[in-house]
Design brief:
131 residues, alpha+beta, 2 domains, two-stranded antiparallel sheet, 6 helices
Length: 131
Amino acid sequence: MKIERIAYEQLYPTGVYANIRLRAEATILAHEDATECYKMLRDEVEKAFTAMNPQINWLSDSATTESSQKENLLPPKESVIQSHIKTINECNTLNNLKIFEKLVTKTADPQLTNAYTIRHEQLWKQNQKSK
């Protein structure tokens, strides 16, 4: 078998449901080693990703595991909870608020539950007054 072309493709997770796919291809000359070419392509793809995304630095530390890489990309749990609380407080109808019911039940976060309960009571009272 003679390998004439080789490609390396990597999918980089950059956030929740956000990815960047980079691909590099090369033609292998008769005197070149396919494995070495593959490694060079991999290095070039990683350099390109790092250059395009300097804010994501998990590629530079080769000792990190895949799970810690993913943790670095996800926002802290506290900021996610605060974001949900802000959105809950901005709900202006009970139907809009009901969207968060399963989330509140599933996460069982005391802050989120408290925000949901308070906003539910406020909207319920507003609804009763308008009737």
